[in-house]
Backbone:
């Protein structure tokens, strides 16, 4: 008994359905992908300008050194007594509107020298007395 052999057909690869599936996948990915919109933030960075601070016209600067010497408006003043210092302050503040006495004392200056300036300012009639401080750096 001889069975008839059937003739084998050549395998056929159909590319059209595969391309259709790939196109559907690409369309699906395009529709579901979220696009990121980058927002911008304008940042103004600080600039280092080395400008000298303006001199205030209504300040009377009094400096006390560690040795007890007084400088009034950058000129040395001989300390005789509190009344004499008050007179010097009055002369320095003549013509100023509401003058402010700025006390800049050395770290090693005595407490009494600062009290003398404050008392002289009171006697001269100046109600505003401030202290200049040095900022500590770390």
Residues:
């Amino acid at each position: 008994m001889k069975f008839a052999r059937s003739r084998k057909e050549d395998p056929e690869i159909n590319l059209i359905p595969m391309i259709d599936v790939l196109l559907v996948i690409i369309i699906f990915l395009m529709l579901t992908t979220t696009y990121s919109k980058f927002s911008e933030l304008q940042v103004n960075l600080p600039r280092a300008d080395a400008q000298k601070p303006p001199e205030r016209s209504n300040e009377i600067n009094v400096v006390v050194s560690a040795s007890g010497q007084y400088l009034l408006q950058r000129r040395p003043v001989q300390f005789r007594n509190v009344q004499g210092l008050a007179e010097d302050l009055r002369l320095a503040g003549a013509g100023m509107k509401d003058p402010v006495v700025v006390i800049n004392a050395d770290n090693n200056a005595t407490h009494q020298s600062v009290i003398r300036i404050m008392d002289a300012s009171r006697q001269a009639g100046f109600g505003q007395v401030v202290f200049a401080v040095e900022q500590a750096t770390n």
